[in-house]
Structure formats: structure tokens, C-alpha cells
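Subject: Sanity check before I submit

Could someone independently write out the C-alpha cells for this chain? I want to compare against mine line by line before I put it in a report. The sequence has 470 residues.
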Amino acid sequence: MWSFIVALSVLLLFIAAVLCAVRAAQTARTPQGAVGWVVFLLAVPWAGVPLYLFLGHHRFTGYRVARRESERVVQGIKAYSEHIRPAPETLTMNVKPFEAIANLPVLKGNEAKLLVDGEATFAAIFDAIDAAQEYILIQFYIVRADDLGLRLQAKLIEAAKRGVKVRFMTDAVGSYHLPNSYYEDMRDAGIDVVMPSDQRGPKYRFQLNYRNHRKTVVIDGTTGFIGGHNVGDEYLGLDPKFGRWRDTHMRISGPIVSQLQLIFVEDWHWARDEDLLDALNWAAPDVEDNANAVIVATGPGDTTETGSMMFFSAIAAAQERIWLASPYFVPDIDVMTALTNAAMRGVDVRLLVPDVIDHKMPWLAAFAYFDEIMEAGVKVHRYTDGFMHQKAFVVDHTLAAVGTTNLDNRSFRLNFEAMALFFDADIAADVDEMFQVDFENSYELVKPLALQSAFVRYGAPLARLVSPIL
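---
Independent answer below. Compare away.
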């Protein structure tokens, strides 16, 4: 009897593995991902089936997007934006691909201030919270109940006590260790909090692999913040393991704040099934700096490969140079092809990555890609002054971007991300200056994979093999 039960269990497991393999072949977003899942499921079904149920979905089909559900809002923003669209002759780059990816127009009348590292970032965010008069929208992927997290909590509670409407949201996976008391203390103070236990969505559908990786702060609909920092002491360089934490945020003002706000509304609507559209200010005034900009939000709820396409479009547009910074480099074929093609066209292509290990698998996998791009002429710079976590790029002297999107499979296909793109020479010059300092704190990688340590030499191909399925 026992042997029959075991045999039946094995048969059912194999049938489940075959069914999952067929589904993976039909739905995986890339051929590499499809092959990876099929091989893994059939070779190791006892591990492959449960992992596929949690990690194998590649489209967040249940995600209801505010921009698409409430066309009146999009049309209202676009109507308001018509008089502040830049004249075509003032643009030195074709912005149509970025507008198509964003489903939002490039607008003039914006400004941005780079906030390099945690001290500058959170000083600016705290000042803006203190100055808020009507409402605060705040979302981070990771929030910790450490000193920085408690300081943020205290600032938000103070704002709520003086009558400011505060809405707070974080990712249930990224902030898994954040205690319920952190949320409850804010709720008791009158802050509207999305509790992880209350959220609709992926926990019900074996889709825990999806993460909302965005870091968004909007004050009164007129001031916004976007970038790579989360809320934790390590982002101030206080973790002895990592030392200095090199990251970048951006303080923005002008009409694109309404676009950033719209992304928050989209996420809030999914988490709470609540429409904030009529409760917010959608007329952020233009400013004197008059930079052209757009917020590009990407994620698995989109029907096309928006994350990868954003980088592809930027790389393809480069005529003189494209410099990119990302803590993780596990690109897809399209981005690899774009990078190698740009280098072969004579474009100055530089990639800034950390030398310090944060997550071992993507750190290892990156080495499996370096040889190919280096042979084409891409310069790989490894940052050594602490851990480099920023997500930024600059194209020629025209386009600069800061946000949350990494150059990896997770950001391209599994995370909800956002980048602020500025088509402006002055802001591009600021990002250029930032990169120059970072390059001074880096070394150029020249040693190929074959000459790396045994750990890297043998680990990199294995990590690359696994990366498409994660």
C-alpha cells in the first residue's frame, strides 16, 4: 500500500511538472526563460513544481492600472499638459519611444536636483514633509524600524497631527521584517496606511515573486522624490558590512510631479481598491528651469517589455556616449545587443557596477556577461568606495535618468519600477559630474572570466543559467 502511494505521488508530481513545463513554454517572456524552466521542471520536479508556482508567472494579469481604468484622468492630465509640451524643434532627441513606453507625454517646465547619498536624500525628504500643507504620498520598497525608519515615522506622525493627510505604503516582501506596531502607531496617529495583511494581490495568486520596487514621495502634488534609496540605516552608510552606501535620489518639481503622483495612485488603487484621483492636486505648476521630462513607470502589468525597451531606446539613441550605473547587471539579449552595437558604433559606453557583493547570485551572473561587452569596447568600472546601489544613466549631453530600475531580469520583468527621464543639457551635465566622481572611485575591469578566481570562473555561468527563471 505504501509503495502504491509513493508511486502515485511520483506520477502526479511528474504530471504536474509536465503541465507546468508546457505552461512555461507558452508564457515565459523570453526563450531563455522558457528553456530554463522546462529543463528545471523536468529534471528536478520535486523542486521545480513548487518554485514555478511561486516564481514562474511572468505577467501580473490581475493588476488593474489606474491610467487604463480611468481614462478621464489621463485625458485630463494630457489636456492640462498640451500647453506645456515642448516644441519639437527644441528637442535634440527623438522622445517618441519613451512617451510610448510611459504612456505619458514629455513635458517642459520641470526641474531636478540630484541628491547624492543618503544624508542629502533624507534631509531633503524630511524638509519637504515638514513643509507639507495638504497631503503626503509616500512609498518605499524597504522600510526598517531602525533609527532612520523611526525618524521617518515621527516626521509623518507630526505632519498628520497638524492636519496633513498622509498615505503610506510599502512592499510586503521588501518590508517583511517591519513589525505591525510600526504600521499601527501611524494608523493611531491618523495616517492612512496600507497594511500588508490588508493588501489585495499577489499573495492570493502564487505571485509572491512580484515586487513593488518603487520609491516615491509626493508632497501636495507639487514636489516629488524618486531614486534608489530605501528607508534603513544602511542607506546612510551605517552598516559595517557595506560601509559607505553610494546611492542617488532626485528631487523634482514641475508638471512631471503629476505623472509621479499618477503612478502612486495606480499602486494605491491596486493595493486598496480605492480611487484617489479626485482627492489630489493634478495641476503642478511649471518652473523656471524649464527642463523637458517624463516619468517612465514599468512593470509586469504592462503588455510589452517596457523595462527592457526603455534601456534599449536610450542605448540606441546614443551618438557620443552612454554611461550607466546599476548594482546588478543581468541583462536580456536585446539590451546586450544594444550595448555591443553602441560600442561598435564608436559610442563611449561605460557600465558602473559595485565591486562589493550585496546579493551573490546577480553579482556572480554579471561576470558571465562582461567578456562579451568588453570585447565590443564597453568599459566596465567596478566601484570600490563602499556599495554602489544607484540606478542612473546619461546619454550624450541630452538625456539623464535617475530612478529605481536595475539592469537585470527582475527589474525588466518582475518588479514595478519608475525612472525620471530629463531631456535637458544642464541636468545631463549634473549627472555627468556625478559619474566622473564615481569613476574616480572605481577601477576598470580588464581581466576576462577565464582569469578570475575559481569561485567566479565556475560560479558565473551557473548563476547566469539560473537568472532567466528568477
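---
OP: Matches mine. For the report I'm noting this point. The chain has a mean pLDDT of 87.
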